[in-house]
Structures are given as C-alpha cells and as structure tokens.
Amino acid sequence: MSAAEQTPGGEDVTWGEVAPEAARRLLVAAVEAFAERGYHATTTRDIAGRAGMSPAALYIHYKTKEELLHRISRIGHDRALEILRAAELRDGAPADRLADAVRSFVRWHAERHTTARVVQYELDALGPEHRAEIVELRRETEATVRRIIEEGVAAGEFDVADPAGTTVAVLSLCIDVARWFNAQGRRTPDEVGAFYADLVLRMVGYRAQK
Amino acid sequence: MSAAEQTPGGEDVTWGEVAPEAARRLLVAAVEAFAERGYHATTTRDIAGRAGMSPAALYIHYKTKEELLHRISRIGHDRALEILRAAELRDGAPADRLADAVRSFVRWHAERHTTARVVQYELDALGPEHRAEIVELRRETEATVRRIIEEGVAAGEFDVADPAGTTVAVLSLCIDVARWFNAQGRRTPDEVGAFYADLVLRMVGYRAQK
C-alpha cells in the first residue's frame, strides 16, 4: 500500500473494521502483493512474509488466498456502495447529489488506487459464490447512481436518453481513476473529484432550473 | 483470445504484421495466458504449451517473456495511436473528428478487450526501456486527442476550461470499456462507440455552430 493510501496520521481507515490487528496486517500485505504481482502469482507464503508472520500464523486468520481476496473485495465494494448511498440519501437537488456522489466516489478511487485496482481487476479470481455476492453489490451500486440520474430526468434537470447506459459510463469514468491516478501527479484526489463532478453533470445534460 | 476478438472469418487482424505464423501463434497464446492468470503467474512454458509448441521453439522467436509482453503492448499502442491519428487528420469540423476518434477507439477497446486489458494492466511489468518507449506512445496518443479538443475550442465549437484534464478523462472513459465490455451484453462495440461519441461531445460542451 502506497503512502497515499494512508491517512495523514498513517492509520489506514479502509481496514479499520478488520480485527485483530494481525488479520488487518495480513490484508494490507495481501493488497500490496496482489497489486504488485497479480493474484495468481502471489502465494500465502509471500503474504505472510510481507506481514512479518509465518504461513501457519496466516492460516489462523484466513483459510485460503481466495478468502483474503474476497475480504478485500467485499470491504472495497461495501465502501463504494456506502459512499454512493450517502450521496443518494442526502438532501438537495439531483444535480447536487450526483455531483456529491461523483466527488466522493472519485476521491476514494484516487486515494485508495492500489486497493481499487485489486478490487476491480481480480474479480475473476473469486470463487463462484463470492463472485456472485460481489456482482450483486455492483448491481446495487449501479442502481443507486441510476436512481439519482432518473430523479434528475423526472425533475427536468437532466437530459438523458438512456439512464442505464449513462450510469455504466459515469461509474466507469470514476472507477478508471484508480488505473491512471498518480499521487505525484498535478491534481489531488479532491481536485480530480471536483473536476469529474463537472464532467458528469455535462454528461447528463444538466441545466439549472429557473 | 475470445471469439469476439476474431474477425467473422476467424482471422486475427491485430497480429497480421507478426510473422512467421509461429511467432503470431505464440503472441495470441501469450495474450490469452496473461489475461487469464496475469503476467507474473505465466511462464514461457505455459505460453509455448498453449500454442502447441515446445519451450525451445518459443525461444527461437522470443528471448524472454518480457519480449512477448513488449511486442503485444507495442502493437496495441501503435494501433490505438493510428486510430486516433486517422480521426485527427480526416476532413471535417473538430466535433466530427472527435466523435470519429471516440467511436473507433471505443470500438477497438470493446472488440479487442482481452488484448486491451493486458496492454493496460501489465504496463508495470515492462523493463525500463520498453516502458519508456510505451509511455512515449501514450504521450503521443494524448497529444492527438488534445489537439482535436483545442481546435474545437479555438473554433468556438467546444467549451473546455482544462483541455489537458478533459483529454485524460475522455481517453480514460474509452479505455475502461475494455474492463467492463461483455461480448454477450446488450450493446455491440459499434453501439457503445456511437453512444460514447455523444457523451464525449457533451463533456467538451459541444454547441453546433450556426
């Protein structure tokens, strides 16, 4: 995990719910290893080694490498959905809520780009049940954004011929920030988030209501 | 390589320049293997096996696994740049040329999604010299799209405050099609291309000139 993925104090909030501390340390090590070498090229021995633990100690917390990937993917997808739901449920016009959703979702993908890449690119490595569970979370994520867009259309704020297709494109634009974002680049996660909120309002044909 | 990545006749046009046929067969096998298991989890023995050849026969054409990845990445990036240059240099207003660029670029990423994923996600696995060469091609790709956008701004067709940032977002939107595109999905590569051309004209604030 890069320095950019830590809070200024160095504490990693993404994995805050993972206890005990050894289990959390292993998860952070797994994200690093999967991001660097890919899921299939990483062994549980590599992960234990990175966490400064023995393979036997890893086994106490995770029975398989797939269990580690599932835990990472689950936490990542839960967090993404939580961010979008918060934006959906706040007060305000659809345009404000859509802009808010995009800003926070992009910020997360920029700040946590290493985690987000693992979550997005290693989906096929999950076992069938875990994969089905994550696919369902992704469906809910999509439905959340689609509802905001449809509300905007109903309110006459947005001009969108295909809400489903536009939802896929908006989420895709935001998710791909994890691929290209560079912590040494010219924009901060906040700045990319604000810029993308404007672009997305253009994509939905936003017109301020009189 | 999936069936969707073949022409209707089954011939693979992407690798047409690769000769002899054995070298081409190895490249196609390498794309499949890297896409399924990741670069680091794939051995030259795996690739030779998929191509129905011996490791010694592979070695005649490619000295290392990295050489295979570089060849794939180079061909993919050359093709992407070629597509965008053709759109830049054709006749027509900036809006027509930008729409054309997006349509062809998206179609390529949808049709060749397996190749595009390898090209995009395994960039870090290239050696330093090969990586620098590909980074330079990506810079040219970005510069091509940026020139079309700047021409549109100069002509008063587009309303873009930050051409560099908008260029990154437009290319990112198109490239990420390779991640989510599903040959069994509801839209064909052509349909996604046309839909995305409209979205991108919205992103650049296109207004038809009187």
UniProtKB/TrEMBL annotation, chains A, B:
Q: Gene3D superfamilies given for it? A: Tetracycline Repressor, domain 2
Domain of life, source organism: Bacteria
- Show where the HTH tetR-type domain sits: 20-80
Q: Which UniProt keywords apply?
A: DNA-binding
State a single Gene Ontology molecular function.
transcription cis-regulatory region binding
Q: DNA-binding region(s): which residue ranges?
A: 43-62
Instruction: Output the PROSITE patterns linked to this UniProt entry.
Output: HTH_TETR_2
InterPro entries under this entry? Homeodomain-like_sf, HTH-type_TetR-like_transc_reg, HTH_TetR, KstR2_TetR_C, Tet_transcr_reg_TetR-rel_C_sf
State whether keyword GTP-binding applies: no
Name the PANTHER family for this protein. Answer: HTH-TYPE TRANSCRIPTIONAL REGULATOR RUTR, HTH-TYPE TRANSCRIPTIONAL REPRESSOR BDCR
Q: What is this protein called?
A: TetR family transcriptional regulator
UniProt organism field = Streptomyces filamentosus
